[in-house]
Amino acid sequence: MSNQSKRFIDVIKQLNHFIMEERLTNGDKLPSERELSERLGVARSSVREALRALELLDLIETRRGEGTFFNATGSHRLVDIILMYMLKDDTAKKDLKETRRIIELDAIRLGLKNISSNLIKKLEEIYSTQINASFDKQFELDYEFHKTLVEASNNKLLINIWVSLVDFHKATIDTQKLVADPKKKLEDHRKILYLLKEQNKKEALLLIEQHLESNHF
C-alpha cells in the first residue's frame, strides 16, 4: 500500500474516532476543514478527501453554505469493516474486491430489468469518450460505465455500499501501476452495449461477470 493510501486511511480513522470521542449526535455540526486539519495535524486536502469518503458512507452530510453535519443513521460499522480489511494482508484485499464484485453483479441484475433508451444513450456517451481518452481518464470513465449500470438498479442501499467499496478500494491502488489492457476493457464495453441494445440480458450479465474478473478499480 502506498504512503498516500496509508495517510488517507489514517485520516479516515482519526475522523471516525473524533466523531465517537466527541459523542456527536444526529445533526451535530463538525468543525471546518481548516479546524479539523489543525486538530488532526494533516493537510486540508487529506481532510477533504476523507470527508468525501465518509459522506459516501452516509456518515456525514454536507450542506452548502452551512457546513458538515453528523448523520447518526449512517454506516458507522461499515467504516470499521472496510478499514479493517484495507489495513490487512493481500488476502483481505481480495475479499474486499470479491465483495464489491458480488454486490455489483446483484445490482446490475436488478438494473437489467430497467434497461431504457436513456440508459443506453448514457453508456454510449461514456464509451465514445473513453475511446480516445488518456489512461487516467479511461480509468475514471471505466468507473462511470460501471456506476451507470449499478445505478440502474434504483436500489439506494446497494448503490451506496458499492460506491463506498469502490471508493475505498481505489484509495489503496496506484493506477499508474495497473497492467489491465485498455483495449480489452473497451472491447468488453462495446460488446456489453451491443448485447443490451439487443435486449440479450442473459449474455450481457455473463460478459459483465467475466469483465469484472479482470477489472482493477
UniProtKB/TrEMBL annotation:
<dbReference type="InterPro" id="IPR036388">
    <property type="entry name" value="WH-like_DNA-bd_sf"/>
</dbReference>
<dbReference type="InterPro" id="IPR008920">
    <property type="entry name" value="TF_FadR/GntR_C"/>
</dbReference>
<dbReference type="Pfam" id="PF00392">
    <property type="entry name" value="GntR"/>
</dbReference>
<keyword id="KW-0238">DNA-binding</keyword>
<dbReference type="Pfam" id="PF07729">
    <property type="entry name" value="FCD"/>
</dbReference>
<dbReference type="InterPro" id="IPR000524">
    <property type="entry name" value="Tscrpt_reg_HTH_GntR"/>
</dbReference>
<keyword id="KW-0805">Transcription regulation</keyword>
<dbReference type="GO" id="GO:0003677">
    <property type="term" value="F:DNA binding"/>
</dbReference>
<keyword id="KW-0804">Transcription</keyword>
<dbReference type="GO" id="GO:0003700">
    <property type="term" value="F:DNA-binding transcription factor activity"/>
</dbReference>
<dbReference type="InterPro" id="IPR036390">
    <property type="entry name" value="WH_DNA-bd_sf"/>
</dbReference>
<dbReference type="InterPro" id="IPR011711">
    <property type="entry name" value="GntR_C"/>
</dbReference>
<protein>
    <recommendedName>
        <fullName>HTH gntR-type domain-containing protein</fullName>
    </recommendedName>
</protein>
<feature type="domain" description="HTH gntR-type">
    <location>
        <begin position="5"/>
        <end position="73"/>
    </location>
</feature>
